[in-house]
Amino acid sequence: MSDALINGLAGAGGGIIAQIITYPLQTVNARQQTERDLKKEKRKVGAIEQMCQVVKQEGWERLYGGLTPSLVGTAASQGVYYYFYQIFRNKAETAALQSQKKGIGDGSVGMLSSLVVAALSGCVNVLLTNPIWVVVTRMQTHTKISKKDHSNRLATTAPEETALPVIEPLSYGTSHVIQEVYDEAGLFGFWKGVFPTLIMVSNPSIQFMLYETMLKKLKKRRALSKQGNNGVTALEIFLLGALAKLGATVVTYPLLVVKSRLQAKQVTTGDKRHHYKGTLDAILKMIRYEGFAGFYKGMNTKIIQSVLAAAVLFMVKEELVKGVRLLLIKDGINTMKPKPL
């Protein structure tokens, strides 16, 4: 079994566990990001309070709306990302060693190379898995209410006050969402928000750059202080993953909001301020009608969710990789032996 495949499978497993643990926060955050009520006097609702409101008004199952396609998407995304990340990383390490033989560098992968490796892996991941996340976002932002409440709200709400998420009394399963997206924009509809998402590969790129840099420094310090022992504990991996994700999220959050706005269902009638033709149109309308604060809606919730998810993912992934390698070594298969150059 190749090292890339081990990392890909471990990444998928870690992503699934992290997704299940943090999914209610992700659902609430998607609703916060797509909220377009332009009334300044509207009271802000915190993540916990909003979760309680969802449970009270729609039931516990709505906190897990779209969980099935989300788990598929997470497994696919993390698997694809880590698989290609390890392949590109191996090539970068080989290039670094060859440069060292020529008297250039110390043989280790530099910060810039780590950034490029993470960016390339992210682009491949986005192009392959974006359709899954369009479906997930639709299901997360769908609000479930009764037909009676739906009729009453339509009767008492002016067209210009209509805001997302869109309210429908219909059954909103995965197949329904797929058909809805296809009816709206054909196959192209499944790649809505792909442009800001491609730009957002800078998030995991920054995350992995910070993570690899901190991990490298920690191992170096550990080796110097403990006579060659550079082992890192699961708790340390958890903390490094959390710090790396925190830095990446703060920098790239506005792009995540734009992506969610584009992928959520839009109302083509009524107030045109709620309908976006594309990425640039969304950015300009948000600046004009909501100000720059609109780009940071739900950021507190996202930081908690993404940092916790990333920390769990890194910790579980590293433990799974260690476990698989130990099993392979016990079976007499050492996949970690460097191949002769």
**Low confidence ranges:** 153-170
Radius of gyration: 22 Å
The CATH architecture can be given as Alpha/alpha barrel
* CATH class assignment: Mainly Alpha
User: What would you give as the CATH superfamily?
Assistant: Mitochondrial carrier domain
Total DSSP helices: 11
Beta-strand residue percentage: under 5%
The description of the largest β-sheet is: none
Number of strands: 0
Q: What can you see in these coordinates?
A:
This protein has 341 residues and is mainly alpha-helical. The chain has a single domain (3-330), classed as Mitochondrial carrier fold (Alpha/alpha barrel). The protein contains 11 helices and no strands. The longest helix has 35 residues, at 67-101. The chain is globular and about 65 Å long. The two termini are 20 Å apart.
Q: Any key phrases for this structure?
A:
single chain, 341 residues, mainly alpha, Mitochondrial carrier fold, 11 helices, 0% strand, globular, membrane, repeat, transport, MCP_transmembrane, MCP_dom_sf
Topology (SSEs and partners):
Elements: H1 3-34, H2 47-58, H3 67-101, H4 111-141, H5 147-156, H6 174-185, H7 194-199, H8 202-225, H9 234-263, H10 279-290, H11 299-330
Helix pairs in contact: 1-3, 1-11, 3-4, 4-6, 4-8, 8-9, 9-11
Outline of the structure:
Keywords: Membrane, Repeat, Transmembrane, Transmembrane helix, Transport. This is Peroxisomal nicotinamide adenine dinucleotide carrier-like. By secondary structure, the chain is mainly alpha-helical.
